[in-house]
Amino acid sequence: MPEIISRKVSLEKHLKSKVPKITVVSGFRRTGKTYLVFDLAKNLLQNKSKNKEQVIYINFEDERIPNKAEFLTELLPTIKETFQRPPEIIFLDEIQNMFNWSKWVRRIYDKEKIRIFITGSSSKMSSREIPTELRGRCLEEKVYPLSFKEFLDFKKIKIDFSSIPYSENEKVKLNKMMNEYLFYGGMPEVVLSEKENKFEIIQQYYKTVVRRNIIERFKIKNEEGLKALLLLLLNSTSYSVSKLYNTLKSLNYQIGKTTLCRYISYIENSYFLESVPIFSYKIKDQLQYPRKVYFIDNGFINALSTKFSKNSGRLYENFVFNELKRKAALDAQIFYWQDKKGREVDFVIKEGAKIKKLIQVSYDLSDLETKQRETKGLVKASDELRCNDLTIVNRDFEGEEKVGNKKIKFIPLFRFISS
């Protein structure tokens, strides 16, 4: 077993469920899915609740494993023959690359008394897109880059978030850690690496995701066009397919609009990027208006973008989006809001049929004009969407203010992402 630093996320609860389900551990490449599996396996073996041969781990990215249905057909009989008993727990790492994998898993789940854990770095493994034959049989555990508290754990830094006001010592330590987290992100290996190696590791991750999770998986022939599209998205806060098409055409990349839509869906499928539509009760508006762009980790923006590496507002907004995704309810949807006068709210949180929260993100509220602009957008959206849970996430201001008959909460970023 490699050395493992435990996280706030744990797979232990999935062993205790009275009705056994297939546990799908999904998320972006290198966010720590395999280490969560190792952590659970290590605890099982250390507590002697299982013998070694009862806990089986298979990495399907091992080049020696052929992508053939026969391999899966023969797998369980071979394990039984080797250990003279069936396993009790089986971990299947990146099995989604195997032919007919979901039908095989369904058969094992139905016929054997085996706890099955699957990891995958494709959104096709998510609870919304899981193959039909596994619907109702799976529970998803989504794994994100490290939260701020996990980041501090990995750095072995202790900060008491309950002590207000903070001592000068705590303030200096908190600001230093916040700046590092904001700039380099929360990918576990990057957090643990030396400063001079961080961007190189991030760039290697990017190349691997582009090559393995997008180009090879979807058999893309126009590699240069895809890479140009990715760079445009990395240097944008929003996009429309028409604008992307025209820009790429002016740069001599021949990509049709339909192909562009496919490429964007492939990129989202790898968990690298997520796009957010405008809030509207009309589907036509959601399709026509530009979509805002957020990336799985700030490190990618800083290491790969030429435009936003020193844009604190953009980095704050990207972090808030990922934190909202981390904490979202199962039925939650995230939109942005904009009216005809250009007033905007960054995040509209909808749960079921109801708008639950409106959240604005602003790096610096010390300028009165900026503060008024941000609050006006919130108040207007509050009236239109009938939602009174209003928040502005910012650098350092904390408190509540009344604007007309509306109450707005101001929350510093560090408190928002450490709660």
Number of domains: 3
CATH class of the largest domain: Alpha Beta
Q: Cα-atom Rg, whole angstroms?
A: 23 Å
Query: Would you identify the CATH architecture of the largest domain?
Result: 3-Layer(aba) Sandwich
**Segments where pLDDT lies below 50 for 5+ residues?**
none
Largest sheet geometry: 6 strands, mixed
Q: How are strands sequenced across the largest beta sheet? A: 9-10-11-12-14-13
The overall pLDDT average reads: 92
Q: How many beta-strand elements?
A: 14
% residues in beta strands: 15-25%
| CATH topology tier name of the largest domain | Rossmann fold
Helix and strand composition category: alpha/beta
Shape verdict: globular
CATH superfamily of the largest domain: P-loop containing nucleotide triphosphate hydrolases
Distance separating the two termini:
32 Å
Tally of alpha and pi helices? 16
Order of helices and strands: HEHEHEHEEHHHHHEHHEHEHHEEEHEEEH
Amount of helix? 40-55%
